[in-house]
Recover the amino acids of this structure.
């Protein structure tokens, strides 16, 4: 046990350290090394925790108010008991492979005079903790709020933390065992990149299908998840899910019967089940983990040798710009973490949203609320030219959607950090920095332009709209998407993370990623406020407001472009590597 | 004979933390047509100096020119003139060998005929022609090193800057590299390399320098070093004396060969 705690110190530091570095809190080799206070680090953690907790509390209030009205007070506990393990299963498979199989620290640890079982336990803990953070922050504050509002007995609150732990540990053990078995015994999983790529794509697709299915079920929800507290008791899909999640079923018993002695029975059952799951995990890990890691190949597949003709073809000259763009695309497509966090996210997210919208519209058509058809109304709104009277609304909605979709696209926000140690080569190349920056940004900008070209064409054809309508949609969307991408990139230039050890850090743990994904919400708020202000000041003139919204984004885009160009000019001087 | 100064360092200083100097007021001329060895214990400032010459690090003080082009004022022209091989070849791991070579050839604007010939010639000399269609991450350390060397020499640069280039190379490839270095210098061009392997420095270098804690301790030929200490010892013992005289603590440990 002592060795375990000694080992956990560097492993936890590694985990927290990568987060710190990502947010620019660690020391980097710069001209003047800045030491950032521990207070700043804690403040940032606190901010993120508070932000997520705030959303959780607000959600808890909303759903509990509904539950009090319907009298279905236990629905939310059931939902948390099912939701958290599902998140663990999805995040688990995304997180476990890179943490357990890609971190280089394992090789250093293996040569230490420490029992392999201790190292394995340490690595499992290192994988488990980050996976549990989001589900805990998403559900725990909401469950506390729920408990206060519904005046639950004190054992409910005492048992909340063990409840969260119990409903997450067993699913984590299950998914980790599955990963280890695949790694150890299947040829397919021996190539860790291929395995990570395929499992990540599958996990994301499952998440999308799950979202669409839930959306179909909860069509009439006033707030997301309302149906779980609707009158008539616990919905069948939650009851069905709990049959496959025994640790969650016992956990539900712990909280629902918190006022009775039965809670101890449920708690003991949950504890026993988790202890068994943990024991099985560690037992199997002792047999599978190390042989699994050591048996991995770095994607060594048999490659045919190049014939002299093929070699000549493979060496065809290109411009330096095209060479860098090609290299960027190859690295994006071949690096699992880069691919899933950039190309896959950027393309699947709009597809998912459109899928959900389509399902919603089709369902509405079927239910034919009061005989009205939303699709027909939208077509008529566009065809009659009525939309021009509300052009500001169109511009605002398209701006918001573009910024939102762009916020899920980390291609530009990670352009510099993705270079990692390759940044040294960028400094060595006799290629102007601005050419290089343009090449780094090309994949993100190309993807974004293509997405909006397809979306605009689809929308214009679907609504039988004029080319003028299409142009407004496209340029508004492009401008806002560009603004979000460039803001993320500029942040990445100011706070690059080049000394990452795991590729996922370069696309997720950077300030650029943070600003792109969260800053977009601030921009949306600002834009909406500005729109209503102009509408009021202009006496309700739609065209004036629409143009103002467009100009708002345009001015910000020009400003951020200027900052990027200026920063690029001295990028090589600003960053020593 | 009048030497051209290919690389000139004038009063160069560099500090990472603003307090301790990794390179301290270094002045050095490296001439055309010579193989110049850069020796020193661990942490002496060799890699930092090479990184300063290549522009990877910015100067705190002084100036560096490569064939008359200042690395800070005229970086693109200076960079066209040299090739740099870093001490760590783990790079571009998800490109295939041939893709990496094409990338480098494109960046340096090597024309079609030259790139085909040089890729063929260099990969054959280093024995990596059969693995060019594989991803670099599947290569062994030595193979990666050979590929990086091939890429560095692809545009036939005037100056080679090599940081510990023999590390990981098998004896045959090491011999090939030494031969290439000699041919390059004999053609009137420059090779500057850092090494820990004193036997290599002794055999290959036309001139060498010894650096410790950022300060230059010696520059000259092997015979000049022997003259200075008036003894006919190996480079190893002369090196140890030189650095010990400068008061480097722990040097003996780092150079216990």
């Amino acid at each position: 046990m002592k060795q375990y705690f000694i080992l956990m110190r560097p492993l936890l530091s590694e985990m927290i350290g990568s987060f710190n570095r990502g947010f620019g809190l660690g020391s980097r080799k710069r001209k003047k090394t800045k030491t950032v206070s521990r207070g700043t680090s804690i403040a940032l953690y606190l901010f993120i925790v508070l932000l997520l907790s705030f959303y959780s509390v607000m959600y808890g209030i909303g759903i509990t108010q509904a539950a009090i009205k319907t009298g279905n007070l236990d629905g939310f506990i059931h939902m948390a008991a099912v939701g958290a393990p599902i998140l663990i299963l999805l995040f688990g498979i995304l997180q476990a492979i890179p943490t357990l199989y890609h971190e280089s620290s394992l090789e250093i640890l293996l040569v230490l005079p420490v029992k392999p079982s201790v190292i394995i336990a340490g690595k499992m803990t290192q994988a488990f903790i980050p996976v549990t953070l989001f589900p805990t922050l998403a559900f725990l504050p909401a469950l506390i709020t729920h408990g206060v509002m519904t005046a639950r007995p004190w054992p409910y609150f005492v048992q909340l933390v063990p409840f969260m732990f119990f409903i997450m540990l067993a699913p984590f053990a299950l998914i980790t065992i599955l990963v280890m078995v695949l790694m150890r015994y299947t040829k397919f999983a021996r190539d860790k990149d291929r395995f990570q790529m395929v499992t990540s794509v599958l996990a994301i697709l499952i998440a999308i299908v799950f979202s669409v299915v839930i959306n179909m079920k909860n069509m009439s929800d006033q707030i997301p998840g309302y149906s779980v507290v609707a009158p008539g008791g616990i919905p069948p899909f939650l009851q069905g899910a709990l049959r496959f999640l025994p640790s969650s079923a016992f956990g539900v018993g712990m909280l629902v019967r918190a006022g009775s002695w039965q809670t101890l029975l449920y708690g003991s059952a949950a504890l026993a089940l988790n202890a068994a799951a943990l024991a099985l995990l560690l037992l199997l890990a002792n047999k599978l983990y190390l042989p699994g890691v050591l048996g991995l190949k770095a994607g060594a597949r048999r490659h045919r040798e190049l014939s002299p003709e093929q070699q000549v073809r493979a060496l065809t000259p290109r411009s330096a710009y095209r060479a860098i763009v090609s290299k960027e695309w190859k690295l994006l497509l071949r690096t699992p973490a880069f691919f899933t966090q950039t190309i896959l996210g950027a393309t699947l997210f709009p597809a998912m949203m459109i899928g959900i919208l389509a399902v919603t519209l089709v369902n509405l058509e079927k239910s034919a609320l009061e005989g009205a058809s939303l699709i027909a109304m939208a077509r008529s709104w566009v065809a009659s030219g009525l939309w021009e009277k509300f052009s500001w609304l169109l511009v605002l909605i398209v701006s918001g959607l573009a910024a939102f979709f762009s916020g899920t696209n980390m291609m530009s926000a990670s352009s510099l950090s993705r270079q990692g140690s390759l940044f040294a080569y960028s400094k060595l190349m006799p290629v102007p920095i601005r050419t290089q920056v343009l090449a780094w940004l090309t994949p993100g900008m190309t993807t974004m332009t293509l997405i909006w070209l397809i979306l605009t064409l689809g929308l214009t054809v679907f609504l039988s709209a004029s080319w003028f309508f299409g142009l407004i949609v496209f340029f508004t969307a492009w401008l806002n998407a560009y603004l979000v991408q460039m803001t993320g990139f500029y942040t990445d230039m100011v706070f690059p993370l080049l000394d990452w050890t795991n590729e996922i850090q370069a696309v997720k743990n950077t300030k650029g990623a943070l600003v792109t994904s969260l800053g977009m919400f601030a921009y949306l708020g600002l834009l909406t406020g500005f729109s209503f202000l102009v509408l009021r000041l202009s006496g309700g003139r739609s065209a004036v407001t629409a143009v103002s919204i467009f100009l708002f984004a345009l001015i910000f885009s020009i400003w951020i472009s200027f900052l990027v160009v200026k920063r690029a000019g001295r990028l090589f001087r600003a960053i020593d590597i | 004979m009048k030497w051209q100064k290919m690389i000139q360092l004038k009063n160069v200083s560099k500090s990472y933390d603003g307090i301790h100097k990794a390179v301290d007021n270094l002045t050095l001329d490296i001439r055309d047509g010579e193989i110049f060895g850069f020796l020193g214990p661990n942490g002496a400032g060799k890699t930092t100096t090479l990184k300063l010459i290549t522009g990877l690090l910015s100067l705190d003080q002084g100036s560096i020119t490569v064939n008359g082009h200042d690395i800070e004022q005229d970086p693109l022209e200076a960079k066209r003139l040299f090739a740099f091989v870093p001490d760590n070849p783990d790079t571009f791991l998800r490109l295939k060998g041939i893709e990496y070579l094409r990338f480098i050839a494109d960046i340096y604007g090597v024309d079609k005929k030259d790139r085909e010939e040089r890729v063929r010639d260099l990969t054959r000399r280093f024995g990596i022609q059969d693995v060019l269609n594989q991803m670099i991450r599947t290569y062994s350390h030595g193979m990666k090193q050979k590929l990086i060397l091939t890429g560095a020499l692809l545009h036939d640069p005037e100056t080679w800057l090599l940081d510990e280039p023999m590390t990981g190379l098998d004896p045959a490839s090491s011999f090939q590299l030494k031969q290439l270095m000699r041919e390059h210098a004999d053609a009137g061009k420059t090779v500057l390399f850092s090494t820990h392997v004193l036997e290599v420095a002794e055999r290959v270098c036309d001139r060498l320098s010894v650096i410790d804690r950022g300060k230059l301790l010696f520059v000259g030929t092997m015979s000049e070093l022997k003259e200075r200490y008036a003894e006919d010892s190996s480079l190893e013992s002369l090196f140890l004396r030189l650095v010990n005289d400068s008061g480097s603590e722990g040097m003996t440990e780092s150079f216990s060969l």
